[in-house]
Amino acid sequence: MLGTTIHPGVAPTLANAFGTATLLVAAGYSLPQLVRLRRGSAAGVSTAGAVNTAISFVAWTGYAVWAADRWLLAASLVGLPGAVATAGLAVRHRAAPGRWRLPAIWTATLVAAVVAQAVGLLPMVPLVIGTSIVWTVAPALASAWRSRDVSGIAVGTWLVHAGEGLLYLGYGHLHRQPAATAYGVACLAGSIGVLARLAVARWLDAWPHLQPEPVA
Predict the structure, then answer these.
(1) Of 56, 57, 107, 51, whose CA–CA distance to 77 is shortest?
(2) CA 40 to CA 194: how far, in whole Å?
(3) How far, in Å, are 6, 48, 186 from residue 207 at the CA level?
């Protein structure tokens, strides 16, 4: 078990403030997309991304228990129900189907990392968990840039992701938690990519003559 320590010179109040903020972000993590799916709109939603999010929340919950990090555990437990519900609705709507290999690969990667750590081969669990957001963001990012219709992508979801990335960067630094720091970097970069796609779509709507002609 790793255990976590606060960075020297950092007041516990500040460290706990970052922990509280990550808890609040986790509570609203899947809410915007969940609301859209419940209203029947699945445009621009990546099934693989939603399923990977649910898998990642399960993995983070286990990691937080192992690392004895109460804030990560609380955030994971709060965000898990919404992530599972969103994944279930995405599967039901069959949003962007045909990419089940990514959740399968992600699950196999997690299992391999746990086994490698358990038998003392490589301390891979923190690194693999820290990059878990890549498995969620990458399919959504690819779907956003490949799709002509991005109306189903909730801006609020990706603003939450961006805020979460910044918070995890701060949390990882203050609590000396490398998995959280890696997560923050990947989360922020992916969020910027999706938000950039939405900005391009809005720009093209304002200048419709610049949109490419549909292929006959």
Answers:
(1) 57
(2) 22
(3) 50, 32, 32
Whole-prediction pTM: 0.69
For tokens 């990419």, the residue is 99
Q: Which residues are CB-contacts of 6 (< 8 A; sequence separation ≥ 6)? A: 12, 15, 174, 175, 176
Instruction: Give the pLDDT confidence of 80-129 residue by residue, as tens digits.
Output: 888 888 888 888 776 555 567 888 898 999 999 999 988 887 778 888 98
